């Protein structure tokens, strides 16, 4: 038992000197409890499913927010008011629906464009690479696509998809 006391005494001294004042301060306690909550959230998928269901319950969230606020303020009315405001704001924010469509960049080469080279594409731009880059940017060709013969069929496909004719056989389907 003396060995445990010898080991625990310095740890206890450090705890009482550095951590206990932080825990006795309501704001410090709230900060530590939020950090603990974040740690639980990060390991949420590793928790047993029954505990996950409890933590996902909205009433548990409300009780946690209220208890943290009440501990920090010792004011019942203020804690209730702020909890209600937080719940309402949370409902408002989560009620918004994201209305967007993913427009994935196709990597399929259009029939007839398989053998296109950069020279074939640059003919339409009179050899002006900067004009080609501006057009590629305007129609949404990926900016990291290098201007080389390996990528020329894909670039031609994008251009043809936006109404340009590249080489005789590489043109929009009729």
Question: What would a concise description of this structure say?
Answer:
The protein has 174 residues and is mainly α. It contains eight helices and no strands. It folds into two domains: 94 residues, no CATH class; 69 residues, no CATH class.
- Treating each run of at least 4 consecutive H or I residues as one helix, how many helices? 8
Radius of gyration: 31 Å
N- to C-terminal distance: 89 Å
What is the chain-wise order of helices and strands? Answer: HHHHHHHH
Number of structural domains: 2
Q: Output mean pLDDT.
A: 82
> What is the number of strand segments?
0
Tell me the strand percentage band.
under 5%
Shape: elongated
Q: Can you summarize the main beta sheet?
A: none
Unreliable spans are none
How would you describe the overall organization of this protein?
It is a single chain. The chain is mostly helical and 174 residues long. It has two domains: 2-95, no CATH class; 106-174, no CATH class. Helix content is 64%, strand content 0%. The chain has eight helices and no strands. It has helices at 2-24, 26-42, 49-56, 58-73, 76-95, 118-123, 129-139, 152-161. The protein is elongated, with a radius of gyration of 31 Å. The termini are far apart. The relative contact order is 0.07. The model has no long low-confidence stretch (mean pLDDT 82).
Quick tags:
about 65% helix; mainly alpha; single chain; about 170 residues
Fold topology:
Elements: H1 2-24, H2 26-42, H3 49-56, H4 58-73, H5 76-95, H6 118-123, H7 129-139, H8 152-161
Helix pairs in contact: 1-2, 2-4, 4-5
């Amino acid at each position: 038992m003396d060995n445990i006391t010898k080991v625990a005494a310095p740890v206890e001294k450090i705890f009482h000197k550095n951590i206990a004042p932080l825990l006795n301060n309501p704001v410090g306690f709230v900060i530590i409890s939020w950090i603990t909550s974040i740690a639980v959230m990060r390991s949420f998928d590793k928790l047993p499913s029954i505990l996950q269901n409890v933590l996902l319950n909205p009433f548990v969230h409300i009780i946690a927010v209220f208890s943290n606020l009440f501990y920090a303020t010792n004011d019942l009315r203020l804690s209730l008011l702020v909890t209600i405001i937080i719940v309402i704001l949370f409902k408002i924010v989560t009620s918004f629906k994201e209305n967007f469509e993913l427009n994935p960049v196709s990597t399929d080469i259009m029939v007839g464009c398989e053998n296109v080279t950069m020279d074939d594409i640059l003919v339409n731009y009179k050899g002006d690479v900067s004009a080609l880059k501006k057009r590629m940017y305007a129609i949404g060709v990926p900016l990291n696509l290098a201007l080389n013969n390996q990528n020329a069929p894909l670039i031609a496909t994008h251009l043809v998809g936006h109404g340009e004719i590249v080489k005789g056989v590489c043109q929009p389907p009729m």
